[in-house]
Amino acid sequence: MTPANSKLMIRTLPVLYLLLFAFLGFGQDNYKSFTVKHITNSNITPDGILNEPVWEKAESANEFWEYFPLDSVQARQQSDIKMFYDDKNLYVGITMDAAGKDYAIQSLKRDFLAGGSDNISVVFDTFNDGQNAFLFGTNPYGVLREALISGGSTQQIGFTTSWDVKWKGDAKIYDDYYTAEMVIPLSSFKFKEGTQKWRFNSYRFDTQSNETSTWIKIPQNQQVWGTAFMGDMVFEKPLEKSKTPLAIIPYVNAISQKNFETDEGSNDIKFGGDAKIAIGTGLNLDVTVNPDFSNVEVDNVITNLTRFEIGLPEKRQFFIDNSDLFSSFGDSRDANPFFSRRIGIARDTAGNSIENKIIGGVRLSGKLTNNLRVGLLNIQTDEDLENEIASNNNTMIALQQKMFSRSNIGMYFINKESFRDYDFIESEDRYNRLFGVDYNLTSKDNTWTGKFYLHKSFQPNDNVGNLSSGARLSYNSRNYNFSGKAVYIDEDFSSDLGFVRRTGILKSFLNFERAFWPEKGKIQTHSFQFLPIGIWSTEDDFENTDYSLRTSWEAKFNNTAEFEAGFNSDFTFLFDDFDPTASDDGIPIPGNQGYYYNSVEAAYESDQRKLFAYGLGTEVGRFFNGNRFSVEGGMTLRFQPKVFISLLFNYDQISLPNPYPSADIWLVSPKIDVTFNKSVFWSTLIQYSNQRDNLGVNSRLQWRFAPLSDLFIVYNDNYFVNTFAPRYRSINLKFTYWLNI
């Protein structure tokens, strides 16, 4: 087969797979439902005490099933959920049996992580599409959390806790149970006017009984928060259009900062804000003017021993709501056409990443009809002539139409264009445009999932080829799991707003996993996995440039601990010289030749329910033309309920033969979180990385004086590691207020 014919075949793969697998769909057999009654005068105070007479009249969602350690029996500690609603709010009352009062919690801070602690979550699929859902949760201390679920719950990235919305709730602890109350404004949800049914489920973590339970029975090979397995909550009368207020969120930020490298300092006061406007009951319009993200949690530093950049998660609130509608196109690892973190960051004349001010933007997203989602994003960034950074307009339009039971087809258009002509911008870089089509396959019970896509980029005088296409298909059952992927990325494919690790490649992998479920013993489940990965260069007659053969065994224990061991066999052809130590004056490993290297690895994670928990992993073996020894781990210590201490560390010993550099690379990140109460939080993160020659301190004090309204004091300090000289220092005093009009 000629290279030209190979390219044609690769580009048509998505269409062939689409025709082959679009019809797939399966059902669930444990249907349950309950009625949510309508009331006119609730007089509910969300104090966690279910003493109002109206609760006695509400129907229950009860008879929970165990999800862990077994998924075939009724839960030992049962939960009972009651609901009713009026014209403004949905009211939820929950009673949860418990073995005692020795609950495990992380802190009193909102948006806690559920694993390893006691809590319950309720999940609402308001459009009955099996793809997207709203989650609200609480723990025995009445600490609240909310999240968005997207993408059919097939991957962890479809679970977003950065989303914020106004609602109230609390909990009350008794001797052998605890209760919780939630008052959730209907304006917090998006739904079709006149609907009378939502899909619903709930899941609960109970550390004292070492049990995870769900209202609808879910097999353990599926996510516990998945949207494939849900029952129905039927409203007594159709829902009316919710009277959603206009939310205005202004901010004032006073900042004092100094750059010790340039010996420049400044004191400044910034003003700006956001607005949230509901359009109907299905669409959100977000507007931002001069946004400021100084209060956003600092990114975790990651040791990078590869030739490629690392993508970090989005934490800025403006980009969160319905984020999957924009970011889920293409291949999330190798060819994502839209990566929102590109906006607001640019490279200066020295190639360093620096902040690029966002002037303002708008973002429309949500459901246009019951089956059609729409997204529109337009953001303008400012020019920085000193660093030769242009003012750019960044636009994305996305459409997603539901097909079959839980699948969908999506289309997008992206345009990044310089706001005007600049002398330092080459004509071929004035704009970057992309158009693409994706089909996302999700069967009714998540047994089959897949993605098939075809994308094309356009730049001035460069419109031929420039394709990215791919196909992925997965089969997930209790005992056998298979998955495969093929991705083709043309050498000239370009996405300025995307995350594309590498162009000019054909990449594929096949994954096989056999799972076992012992009936006795300490092991809850264990599995063997084999994963071969290959990469071929499309510009060199499909020469194999990389492969990795990975075999592993993983065990999960009944006490929630986990152990994994594996063997890796790798080959890498370096086209260019490469220094994996990233040293300033080291001689790089020679390019234009291939390297074979093997390694073994093992990792253990302890019982995360304990006050002290830890994880430890190691890898030993060859690395290019040398050796590598790596140890990474972490530990957490809880002083309940107010103090949570954690420590992450990573050590890599790279030993290369002379004259190439060797290095001991350290990354140490201790963090302390103190929650004085449910409104005042203080966290300090220290990150030491000798690879980046940086010691960073981020300390943040937050006072939530009203719902979603905060006063922040944020202190940042950075030092050079080798000389221990100051690099950058700042202190922010930021005030934000959420005002409903």
Commentary on this structure:
There is one protein chain. The protein has 741 residues and is mainly β. 3% of the residues lie in helices and 52% in strands. The chain has a 24-stranded antiparallel barrel. Strand 37 and strand 38 form a beta hairpin. It is globular. The chain starts with a helix and ends with a strand. The N terminus is likely disordered.
Describe the protein's topology:
Elements: H1 3-21, E1 33-38, E2 60-61, E3 65-68, E4 79-85, E5 89-97, E6 119-125, E7 133-138, E8 144-149, E9 159-160, E10 168-173, E11 177-185, E12 197-206, E13 211-214, E14 231-235, E15 247-259, E16 264-279, E17 283-289, H2 324-327, E18 335-336, E19 345-347, E20 353-355, E21 358-367, E22 372-381, E23 392-403, E24 407-418, E25 431-442, E26 448-458, E27 467-476, E28 480-489, E29 499-500, E30 505-516, E31 523-537, E32 543-557, E33 562-574, E34 593-605, E35 612-623, E36 626-639, E37 643-655, E38 663-675, E39 680-689, E40 694-706, E41 709-719, E42 726-736, E43 739-740
Parallel strand pairs: 1-4, 1-14
Antiparallel strand pairs: 2-4, 3-13, 4-5, 5-11, 6-7, 6-12, 7-8, 8-9, 10-11, 12-13, 12-14, 15-16, 15-42, 15-43, 16-17, 17-21, 18-29, 19-20, 21-22, 22-23, 23-24, 24-25, 25-26, 26-27, 27-28, 28-30, 30-31, 31-32, 32-33, 33-34, 34-35, 35-36, 36-37, 37-38, 38-39, 39-40, 40-41, 41-42
